[in-house]
Amino acid sequence: MKKKVLVAMSGGVDSSVAAFLLKEQGYDIAGVTMCLGISDSGDSSRAQCCGVEAIEDSKTVCRKLDMPHYVLNFANELEEFVIKNFIDNYKKGYTPNPCIRCNQFLKFEKLFNYAKTLGFDYLATGHYAKIINLNEQYYLKRSKDKKKDQTYFLYCIKKDQLQSILFPLADYMKDQVRTIAKDANLPVAEKPESQDICFVNETNYKDFIKKRIGLQEEGDIVDKNGTVLGKHKGIINYTKGQRKGLGIATGKPSYVIGIDAAKNQIILGDRDDLLQKNLIASDINLLLDAFPQKGSAQIRYAHQEADCSLEYKDNILNVSFDNAQDAVTPGQAVVVYDHETVVGGGVIQ
Q: Do domains 215-269 and 275-348 have the same CATH topology?
């Protein structure tokens, strides 16, 4: 009997090719798109996942591949687990990563459970990541395309789920995926990638938050000694490491080195003030039996992983880097690797 796979379809080329490859491999497949209650921006140059256009594109691909397609309403879950957290973190002076939360609570919790409840053997996505099986032990590893690798966003998958997840693009480069889509005459072959936060239709995330909570209270911009340098327009407008858009002149390059939500202050300093060797993370997810004493860690998606020492106790991970890292930002994830294998990760505090 054919193994049954539910393929998460975003309307983009990656998930469409993932479905095509699984069909070619002989799986019994069906597609599913999460409807998140998102209206399209109306700007055709901004590809967006999970909007009306994405749902229609997914349906078109599924018809082309002669496979069923389902649409599930996850709007309430997006609001509860992703958007509220996104806004609350910015109000606290943190910089959250909503894509990780979406993977954690929507794709690999609710959607995964939905697939298993309906009798599917696997949930598949178009992520660039790899799962390997060694003696019935499953490991999450970086994909072949290191530039597109998305394991940073996937550290939150539970260890016991790995055996029921497929990443068909694991061994493909992005240009190969485009070529496969063209050769298969998939209608999304030339579709641009979604780069924005899916639920933000406004110009930027700041406008989205202001629409939700109104204008924030102004406060002081201070230096690291507490000297007032000027006024800020609400802490949601700033993130650690920011240099542009500060609205004041200090006579030298200045950077946001801290955000004190309790005092409603933005703290400025020099570039060197952004360098630190240690961080603490909580809300830890572990994909191996334990964290090694030495490994490498990545503090942002577009950041090179760096060698470090690790100490894990009481669901708190202490990371000590061999070399100081730039702009370690509360709210972002730190993901630990043992060479190509994802060990686990958590949220930087």
A: no
* pLDDT class of 195 with cuts at 50, 70, 90: low
Residue with token string 């579709």: 191
Both structure tokens of 313: 């106790």
Residue 47 burial (CB < 10 Å; 0-12/13-18/19+)?
buried
Write the CA distances from 69 to 60, 87, 170, 298, integer angstroms. 9, 32, 23, 36
Mean pLDDT value of segment 191-202: 75
**Token pair 């993370």 is at which residue?**
281
Catalytic residue among 49, 50, 198, 308: 198
State yes or no: is 99 an active-site residue.
no
Q: Which CATH number fits domain 4-183: 2.60.40.1120, 3.40.50.12780, 3.40.50.620, 3.30.110.30?
A: 3.40.50.620
Query: Of 49, 102, 156, 308, which is the active-site residue?
Result: 102
- Examine the residue annotation and report whether 102 is marked as an active-site residue of this protein: yes
Residue 58 gets the label, from left (phi > 0), alpha (psi -120 to 50) or beta, of: alpha
CB-based contacts of 333, cutoff 8 Å, min separation 6: 97, 100, 152, 155, 281, 299, 345, 346, 347, 348
Amino acid identity for residue 270 in this structure: D
The 10s digit of each residue's pLDDT in 29-46 is 999 999 887 654 444 444
pTM over 0.85: yes
Amino acid letter for position 52: V
Tens of pLDDT, residues 223-243: 999 999 999 989 999 999 999
The amino acid present at 339, given as its one-letter code, is: H
- CATH number for the domain whose boundaries are 275-348: 2.40.30.10
Q: Radius of gyration over alpha carbons of the chain, in Å?
A: 21
Tens digits of per-residue pLDDT, 156-178? 999 999 999 999 999 999 999 99
Q: In the CATH scheme, what is the code of domain 215-269?
A: 2.30.30.280
Q: What average pLDDT score do residues 320-341 get?
A: 96
Phi and psi at residue 288, to the nearest 5°: -110, 180
d(CA 331, CA 241): 13
Separation of alpha carbons 105 and 22, rounded Å: 25
Domain ranges of the chain: 4-183, 215-269, 275-348
